Amino acid sequence: MRKIWQGVAASPGVSVGKILWYREQELKYQHTFVENTALEIERYRQAQNQFCSYTEEQAQLAASDVGDAQAEIIRTHVALARDPYLVGQIEGRIAANQCAEAAIEAACGSFMALLSESQSELIRQRASDVWDVQNSMLRLLLHVPEKDLSSAEPGTVLVADEISPSVTVRIDPKRIIGIITRKGGPMSHSAILARALEIPAVLGVTELPKEVDTEGLPIIVDGYLGQAMVEPNPWELSVYIKKQAAGLRYRNELKKFATRETRTADGRRFHLAVNVGGPEEAMRMASYRPEGIGLLRSEFVYMSQLDFPGEEVQLDAYRRTIMVAGGAPTVIRTLDIGGDKALPYLKLENEENPFLGYRGIRFSLGDLDVFRTQLRAILRSSIYGPVSVMLPFVTSIEEVRAAKEQLALAKEELKSTGTEFREDISLGIMIETAAAVIMADRLAKEVDFFSIGTNDLTQYMLSVDRGNAQVAERYSYCDPALLRAVKWAVEKGKAAGIRVGVCGEAASDPLLTPVFLALKADRLSVSPGAVLPVRREISLWTMEEANQLTEKVFSLSTEKEVRALLEQERRG
Ligand code: PEP
Ligand code: MG
Questions:
Q1: How many Cβ atoms sit within 10 Å of the Cβ of residue 474?
Q2: Which helix (H) or strand (E) holds 380?
Q3: Which of 34, 59, 153, 179 could pair covalently with 201 via S-S, beta carbons 3.0-4.6 A apart?
Q4: Which DSSP category does 473 fall into?
Q5: Are both 355 and 457 inside the same structural domain?
């Protein structure tokens, strides 16, 4: 009987296959009182070492089979298993006479509880990585082998409560063509891996039945709609088989653009960079050859720690990202916390309007130690490749000047200890507030570049909360008010002779590509999945055509008119 399972779209694409339920074996053990705690600690350490060397091996295999990004994700599990805080908690519990299994479960449990309390989706999702490490170590201590997936039939759709990254890396995309889970969201590592493997995935299907009564049934996975259809009717099947084939053709067509330069149809070279949330994502993108990292959201390095990360931890994360960029420019945005982004260890006061509150550069200028630690780490990373610093959520000239003072101080601090860095590091700002747009001519005199953040700019220009579903319909990049603001900022920046790019999601939408071409933005920095579609769209426009269309766009007065025109003219 036909059923629809609704979840969240975690990896795009559609597939038509047969269900295979994946159930983890239960890991049962007796809680025992341990007399010889030294021996038990040794037993735990052996399991930990075994886990780390096995996982490292898996990472190497993943690197050669499916890419460095997957390898990097698995390596984060090694780092987790060796995390001094977690190890201390586990060994402390064993020293207090708990058996290794109970100590691991209790220590990981409280770590997961801490992460799950976070307001940030990204941090909450990290709890599943801890869960994965915990189970792998328990399996080693209890001698329970992992379930074999290598013999799954080609055309299998894996259905499970949760698929941990350690399972995801054992998935062969030639056999497993879809993933459906009860738990997990679009930010989970499993989702990231599914996207990297290009397997359509629907996660967070809360109504997934507990019993495995659907084994072997035909199923459609729609990774765009976040929906799966069990036992589809013949009409649905034929529609989706066609969609699957068309999707495959489109993906193959897009792949051709991975090795091409970004050029318009009349040959104008264009700088197409990528927005990333850390080295893992940067690595995943390397094969698409973006022309730089236009936005490194440095929050990732703060969110994955239990306290503010020190200079060395940050330097390591920035250095790894810069190395992936391989000589292309990397823009590191300073901490953009506040608004909808929180840190588990930072108790900020509750704000009635967090998006208008203590956020981004305001936070950094309110905690100069944290800010200068970050600036020193960024400065030090500059010896590994071309790096710039970018300030988020700027609303005034004073903020820019105060940040410049801190940058100068950070340089002095490094000089006084003889630490190497590049003196000529450039400084830019996000143009993502109404104040920054209207003051763009003055701000342009203070900095080396602008990057227009349309995600926030849309919410501030249109007074529409970017996360509020009730007003989501009003949140649109096609609104003439937003487009006028973008045009104004580009023109003021260019008139002052500085570089102007666009890094919000609007840049990732091929619908708006001709508009950004015509406005002569120097750079588009797009989300990872958009590099190839946007490069392809750019290749389909001459500058003359883009100019003509954009002139018409700016003659229109409503969002609907703009969208209709752009949709009608869309090439890709
Ligand atoms: C933006 O606001 O457009 C942007 C790129 O930053 P974030 O989405 O991280 O706020
Ligand atoms: Mg922003």
A1: 15
A2: helix 368-381
A3: 179
A4: G
A5: yes
Could you tell me the residue range of the domain that residue 202 belongs to?
Answer: 3-22+147-249
| 79-87 contacts at long range (C-beta below 8 A, 24 or more positions apart) | 80/129, 80/130, 80/133, 81/48, 81/51, 81/52, 81/55, 81/133, 81/137, 82/48, 82/52, 85/111, 85/306, 86/111, 86/130, 87/48
541 vs 78, residue with greater confidence = 541
At 219, is the secondary structure helix, strand, or coil?
A: strand
Residue from 240, 209, 208 nearest 7 by CA: 208
| pLDDT of 503 higher than 60 | yes
- Identify whether 29 is part of a domain: no
Higher pLDDT, 74 or 419: 419
Classify 347 as helix, strand or coil: coil
| Nearest-angstrom CA–CA distance, 511 and 477 | 10
Of 249, 272, 294, the residue at which a domain comes to its end is: 249
- Give distance in angstroms: CA of 258 to centre of ligand 2: 28
- Other CB atoms within a 10 A radius of the CB of residue 547 amount to 15
Q: How far apart are CA 2 and CA 228, in angstroms?
A: 10
- For residue 432, which atom of ligand 1 is closest to its CA? 2
Cα atoms in the 13 Å half-sphere on the side-chain side of 416? 7
> Does 178 contact ligand 1 (Cβ within 6 A)?
no
Please provide the distance, in angstroms rounded to a whole number, between the alpha carbons at the two ends of the chain.
38
Distance CA 29, CA 289 (A): 49
Asked if 272 and 237 sit in the same domain, the reply is no
DSSP one-letter string for 506-556:
GGG-GGGHHHHHHTT-SEEEE-GGGHHHHHHHHHT--HHHHHHHHHHHHH-
Number of domains in the chain: 3
Structure tokens that stand for 527 in this block: 């989300």
Q: How far is it, in rounded angstroms, from Cα 127 to Cα 112?
A: 5
Same domain as 414, residue 328: yes
Q: Is residue 235 part of a domain?
A: yes
Distance CA 399, CA 569 (A): 41
C-alpha separations of 359 from 269, 337, 365 in Å: 36, 6, 10
* Ligand 1 neighbour 336 (Cβ under 6 A): yes
Q: Which of 107, 142, 177 lies at the terminal end of a domain, its last residue?
A: 142
> Does residue 388 sit in helix, strand or coil?
strand
- 290 and 242 share one domain: no
The tokens of 114 are what? Answer: 């801490």
Q: What spacing in Å lies between the alpha carbon of 481 and ligand 1's midpoint?
A: 18
Question: Ligand 1 centroid vs 60 CA: distance in angstroms?
Answer: 34
Residue identifier of the C-alpha nearest atom 9 of ligand 1: 297
105-114, 239-248, 490-499, range with greatest mean pLDDT: 490-499
Model confidence pLDDT, tens digit, residues 242-264: 999 998 888 888 989 998 999 99
Q: State the DSSP H helix or E strand holding residue 450, giving kind and residue range, or none if neither.
A: strand 449-452
